[in-house]
Amino acid sequence: MSHHYLDTDTTIVAPATAVGGAVIVVRLCGPKAIAIADTMFRGKRPLTQAKGYTLHYGELVYDNGNIIDDVIVALFRAPHSYTGDDTIEITLHGSEYIASEVIRLAIERGATMATPGEFTRRAFLAGKMDLCRAEAVADLIASDSRWSHNVATTQMRGSYSEKLTALRSELLRLCSLLELELDFSEEDVEFADRTQLVSILKNIDGEIAKLKSSFALGKALKNGVTVAIVGEPNVGKSTLLNTLIGDDRAMVSNIAGTTRDTIEATTTIDGIRYRFIDTAGLRTTDDSLEQMGIDRTYRAIDKANIILHLVSADNPEFSSITTLNNQHYIKVINKIDCVALSKDSYNDCIFISAKQEIGIDELRQRIHQSTDTSQLSSGSIVVSNMRHYSALSNAQESLHIALTSLENHTPSDLVSSDIRRILHHLGEITGEITTDDILHNIFSNFCIGK
To answer: Is the entire prediction scored with pTM above 0.85?
Structure first.
């Protein structure tokens, strides 16, 4: 049985937990969820007679009475559930076979296999959450560090949505005043003071700019802060990568030019996930394969948030590397266990021995200090979603057009139209303005069962 993507009248089923643990949860949701569960559940009384928010111990059985498993069933009645529909969650022993049998029986009795993200999509369509909070559910599941978890949690709790709602409310008020003037156009009455209007729009512009400025941090925390380890051949880049992540991820050799392609590995430092990239050594070469690796090194430098420029203590000269304004550049002198150097002559450098793990803690601290988490520490909202950033950029562009219109004494109806475009772009973030295609793209990236 198939169903339309926006259809909420069918009853859907899917595992809500991954296979491999001690238990598996299978979730049923929709108008027939309780009745379908009753066809295979045998407890003290039928589930159709039970109250919501109740747990029931019993057995799942086939039509012939044979027992499938001992289970606990959680029952949630509409509209007081995650999706707003009748919902059943069956906790089984952690067998993939048992879970597949339960899902098979549910489908035979009228349920449909849920698509990725369909439970959360139904919650959005039922008004249980806006689109910001729905997307935060996926980010929370995918979070792999303390800070990425904090960003997702803040968004899911509604702080981001509340900020956008406040901005939209103010814009709607301004729009209403401007459109009210049209009803009194013959009297030449102004309900919206133009000077005050400009001031308010500039304040909103500042709020949008603040949200946009957080995107670089939000994106880095969500995907991992990119750290490129660069330098000439045989200065210990691969050894440093292995030491930082605590694993032999990169091949180490005394032969210069061993690394001919970028190698990535991740680790967490003080709650932040970092993506370290071991790059090919920078030098002039006639080897076409090695040159391809060097070209990739420069591309990695361009994309990195932090650049670790590594040199050897026996030749502590740093070649010129072009960096961008938003990149952090850290000079590192390696192999200090082999050559003694005066730190006073290199006071802007970190001294380490990657092989002997000397100075690694200091280097980790410097890397962490290069990631500005002050916005998170102060409880500010951080934008981590590219779709949101794009919508904010479009809203700010429309806002600048509205300001220009006001400065040029443009008629009220045209200024109102400019402000409505701002409202449209902000509404795209929360889901007040959306399309089937946008919803499909968002929820198709969810896992099945959520």
So the answer is: no
